[in-house]
C-alpha cells in the first residue's frame, strides 16, 4: 500500500517516518506495554460501555482496536444513566504472571482491577481493590528483584478534598488486596512550581523505582519523572517533556515502552478541546545522568523516524460500519450500560435501533441509548443513511454531535403520521433542545445525513431527501464534556410511555478524511 492509498487517519507517512498524533482522536490517558512482538494500549473510557478499549500494534504507529476489557460498568445501577465524566479514569495496563492486568480509579468508588489470560479475554469481573472517594489514576508494580507488589494512585480534589499527592501501598501479589493503610510517597506541594500532580505510572529501571507522572493540568502541563531507591521514597524529580516552542500544549500523561532492539518510546496525550485527548508518540532515551530524555531534548516531535520494528501496513482504528446482520463494530460505545432490545440483530445489513421511550427525549445528553464513537481530530465528513420505521407520534432518530452542547439532524414522526426532516440543538446551559432549521417533509421516511467537521470542530449539517445535498442550519461548534471529547452519535428515541415506539434503521456509516 502506498501513501496515497493509506487510510486517511493513519499516522504512517509511508516513507519510514510518522507524524503526530499517532491516534488523532480522544484516546484519553493512554497507557501501553509490549508483550513479545506485540504492543497494546488502553485508555480512559469514563461512563461509556463497553469500557477500557484495547488497541494493538506491531510498530507503535499503526494501531487497530481489538476489543474492550469491561463489558459493563460497576456499580451497574449507577451507570444505567449517562455519567459522561465519571467511571473509568486513567487506566494502567500491565502483564504479569502470564496475565494481562488493567487497574483504574473510579473517582466515586475506588480502585478497580481486571485481568485476562489473553488481550481479547475473557476478562474477569471488576474487583474493587481499594474503596474510597477521589481515588484515581491507579498503577501497580510487581518488583521482580524483591518479589514485592506495589500500588500507587493519585487523588481527585472534587471528591476527596486532596490533590497534588501520590499515595503508595504494598499490595498482595495476586492483586486481591492491599497490605497496609498506604502513605503519601510524593507530595507535590513540596515541589516548587508543581501542581495537579496525577496520572502516575510506576516502573523499575537501573536499580531505581520510577514514577512517570504529569503535573500542571491537562491544557498547560508537563511530564515529570521521579525516582527513588525505595518505593516509599524519598523521590527526586525532573521535568522531562514540556511544550517549549512547539504547538503541542500540555504534553503529558502516558506510558514508557521499550523495543527488542533497545529503543525507548513514550506515548502521551495532548488536550485538544472538542477533540479530547489525542495520542502522541515520542522517542525516548536514557541520558548519561540516568534520567529519561523524551522527544527532541524534552519537547515534542511533530514528524520522526518510525521505531526500529518490522514494517507494517498503514492502519488506524476503524470508523466506517455497514452493520452486517444488525451488529455494530468495536468502535461504538453506548452512553451508559446497555439494555436488551436497544439494537436488534437481523438477517440483512443495517443498524436497527429501537426508538426508546424516555422522559428525556428532549435532551440527548441524558439518554443512555445513544450509540457513539469518537470524533476524528482531523477535518472529516460523516455520512449515514436513515429510515424511520417507528409509527408512533414523536418518535425520532438521527445523527448527532454530542458534548456539553449538542446538535443532531434526522427524522421525526408527526402527530398526523407524516415524517419530517428536523435539525435541533441545545447549548451547554440549555435543558431542552430547539430547532436549528425549519422542519420539512420527508415523504418517504428516508434520508441521507451528513456532517462536515472542519477546523476547530466546526460542524456543518446537510441532508439529501432524494434531490441532492442541501445545507441545514448554522455552523455548530462542537464542545467537549469536562474531560471527554465530543462524540458522534446515532440514536432512536420517543416521548415517555410504555415499551418501545418502533425502530429506525441506519445503513452505510462512513467517515472520510483528507491525508495531510
UniProtKB/TrEMBL annotation:
GO molecular function: hydrolase activity, hydrolyzing O-glycosyl compounds
A Pfam cross-reference name: Glyco_hydro_43
Region (Disordered): 305-325
GO biological-process terms attached to the record: carbohydrate metabolic process
Domain of life: Bacteria
Keyword entries, A-Z: Glycosidase, Hydrolase
Regions annotated as coiled coil: none
Gene3D superfamilies hit by this protein: 2.60.120.200, Glycosyl hydrolase domain, family 43
Ranges for domain Beta-xylosidase C-terminal Concanavalin A-like: 321-511
CDD domains per the UniProt record, alphabetical: GH43_FsAxh1-like
Stated family: Belongs to the glycosyl hydrolase 43 family.
Protein name per the record: Glycosyl hydrolase 43 family protein
Naturally occurring in which organism (per UniProt): Streptomyces apricus
